[in-house]
Write a structure and sequence with these properties.
The protein has 328 residues and is α/β, with parallel strands linked by helices. Helix content is 48%, strand content 17%. The chain has 14 helices and 10 strands. The longest helix has 27 residues. Pfam families: NMT1 (PF09084). This is ABC transporter substrate-binding protein.
């Protein structure tokens, strides 16, 4: 009986110890955030800097990075459930929420596109664009193109009717400019930087275009997009990720040592290009995100709704409730 009692006590101890270890492992298990990213996007820089930070191993989450070929491929991956998060724009989020989806948005950057011309071009302002050939990154519904038309309209210029338009992917329209097949390009900010580093001149950027349209707030047009229900179920991990994202960006902007670690990801050999990319990237830091910016988003939404004849926004008159996610 004594031996049986000892064995029983030992078994009870082992079972209890096993339960304790299992509980500890479950508590220590990290949430995996599956993020879809384009290889040419700046998100890759941030995620790389984040993972290189010694503090990353103690975070509440781990990353599973999924390369996506295009922005549209990222949207498909998110909607199919292949990833938890992508970087996209809040106009798309609002349109989806109107259809019943629960996607939501958290700001990533205020960086925007730019209008670029050759250094010796006679084009000095938007007023000089009529009767010129304009390369446009994206399509007819590209937001920068819609905003530029609206700004030109304030000068009584019908830009859509007065320029010869060439639509295409950013590398394509850049090449068209270099070969002299277009007189100017309206392109995404990091492709504008590539041109500037080769001696081309930026006429106006996206922020200045919005300011000309009465939007004075530094408005982030792109950000992380994810399901609201998923984020609410993993709020601690998601909040920790956004905090780590900000710390990574701050590190890239403040520390030359941190910046050096992402230079291989820039696809830019020239130091002048690398320097300009860093400058513009850091200028896109979201300094403030609150009621003024979200009210500005409402005004931008109304503007885009009119400019695109509802094609970009959908039929809903106002931004859908819940478009912007709150950390609270």
């Amino acid at each position: 009986m004594t031996g049986s009692l000892k064995r029983m006590k030992r078994n009870i101890f082992l079972i209890g110890f096993g339960l304790l270890v299992s509980s500890y492992c479950l508590a220590a298990e990290k949430i995996t955030l599956r993020i879809g990213v384009q290889a040419t996007g700046t998100v890759v820089w941030e995620l790389s800097a984040m993972q290189a930070d010694p503090a990353f191993k103690n975070s509440d989450f781990q990353l599973d990075i999924h390369p996506v070929a295009t922005a549209e491929a990222g949207k498909i991956a998110l909607q199919s459930g292949a990833v938890d998060m992508i970087v996209s724009d809040w106009i798309w989020v609002s349109k989806l929420r109107h259809t019943g989806a629960d996607f939501t948005f958290y700001p990533y950057s205020t960086a925007s596109g730019g209008l670029v011309v050759p250094e010796k071009s006679a084009i000095q302002s938007i007023k000089d664009l009529p009767r010129k050939r304009l390369g446009i990154a994206g399509g007819e519904l590209d937001k920068n193109w819609l905003f530029l038309q609206a700004l030109a309209a304030k000068e009584n210029i019908k830009l859509n009717d007065s320029v010869e338009k060439v639509f295409g992917a950013p590398p394509l329209v850049n090449e068209q400019l270099k070969q002299g097949r277009v007189d100017a390009v309206l392109t995404y900010w990091h492709f504008a930087v590539g041109l500037e580093s080769e001696g081309y001149r930026q006429i106006i950027d996206g922020k200045a275009i919005l300011q000309g349209l009465g939007i004075q707030e530094q408005m982030p047009m792109i950000g992380y997009v994810f399901k609201e229900s998923w984020a609410n179920d993993h709020k601690q991990a998601v909040s920790a990720f956004f905090k780590a994202s900000k710390q990574a960006r701050d590190g890239l902007c403040a520390s030359d040592t941190v910046w050096q670690t992402v230079i291989p990801l820039l696809n830019a050999d020239k130091v002048t290009t690398q320097t300009k990319l860093r400058q513009r990237y850091c200028e896109g830091t979201v300094i403030q995100w609150g009621e003024p910016e979200q009210q500005a988003a409402g005004r931008i939404y109304s503007l885009l709704r009119t400019l695109s004849s509802n094609q970009l926004t959908g039929d809903t008159e106002n931004l859908s409730l819940g478009t912007f996610w709150s950390l609270k």
